[in-house]
Amino acid sequence: MAAYVVLGNFTDQGIRNVKDSPKRADAFREMAKTFGVTVKELVWTQGRYDFVTVLDAPDEPAVMSLSLSLGALGNVRTETLRAYSAADMTKIVGKML
């Protein structure tokens, strides 16, 4: 499984209905399962981003499908980052010239 960090912000629609955000997060966890994606962590944040999510996914198309499905609901906009563990990074730098 590959890890991803998702940075997100509420849209105008999403902030108008922010009281529903915990319920929407539960629905997102269920939606993720349909793509074989596991939500490892989802936290709401102060500052530049309104929430941060950590995912485990079988591949990039699964994350893309999930992201597009989430975005189509109109409540959030996201930026997805591929993440690497210390073990992954050790292997990566081990292949450097």
Please, could you describe this protein's structure?
By secondary structure, the protein is α+β, with helices and mostly antiparallel strands. It has a single domain, classed as Dimeric alpha+beta barrel (Alpha-Beta Plaits), CATH 3.30.70.1060. It contains four helices and four strands. Strands 2-3-1-4 form a four-stranded antiparallel beta sheet. The longest helix is centred in the N-terminal third of the chain and has 14 residues. The two termini are 26 Å apart. The model has no long low-confidence stretch (mean pLDDT 97).
Features:
alpha+beta, four-stranded antiparallel sheet, single chain, GYD/TTHA1554, elongated, 4 helices, 42% helix, Alpha-Beta Plaits
Query: What is the oligomer described by this structure?
Result: single chain
* Count of alpha/pi helices: 4
Q: Radius of gyration over alpha carbons? A: 15 Å
Number of strand segments = 4
Shape: elongated
Q: Which CATH class is shown?
A: Alpha Beta
Structural class: alpha+beta
Helix content: 40-55%
N-to-C SSE string, H for helix and E for strand: EHHEEHEH
CATH evolutionary superfamily: Dimeric alpha+beta barrel
Mean pLDDT over the residues: 97
Order of strands in the sheet with the most strands? 2-3-1-4
At CATH level 3, the topology is: Alpha-Beta Plaits
Termini separation comes to 26 Å
Strand content: 25-35%
Main sheet specs: 4 strands, antiparallel
Q: From the 3D coordinates, which CATH architecture would you assign?
A: 2-Layer Sandwich
Pick out the low-confidence regions.
none
| Count of all domains | 1
